[in-house]
Amino acid sequence: PSTLRLSVGLYTILGEDERDLARRWDVMRTWMPGRALDGDDIDAWRVDALVGTIDQATERVREFADLGVEELIVAPALIPFAIPDRSLVELIADRLIPTARAA
User: Which residues, 6 or more positions from 60, have their beta carbon under 8 angstroms from its beta carbon?
Assistant: First the structure.
């Protein structure tokens, strides 16, 4: 057990700011199959997913690091193996990863 690395996988929706986050949330809601997010509030997803602004997500990544998590696996959607918004992947790569590594 002492040689095992801790990792966490999280569904992810990020925004440059709260307005961008709300826009991306709306896009995700219309994209999800079967209207799966109808009635869901974005704040409910902040609890168990990586949802927020870059600053909020960076803080969340720090919290996981403080718990000993060495690897974070992000899914740029709210279902596995989906990429409905490629710009979200770019936001993760360009803003979250460098910011989180520097923290």
Answer: 50, 52
Closest CA to 28 of 16, 42, 9: 42
Q: How far is CA 90 from the centre of its chain?
A: 13
The first and second tokens of residue 91, run together, are: 């936001």
Per-residue pLDDT of the chain (103 residues; tens, 9 = 90+): 788 899 999 999 999 999 999 999 988 888 877 656 666 788 888 889 999 999 999 999 999 999 999 999 999 988 888 898 999 999 999 999 999 888 7
Cβ(24)–Cβ(91) under 8 Å? no
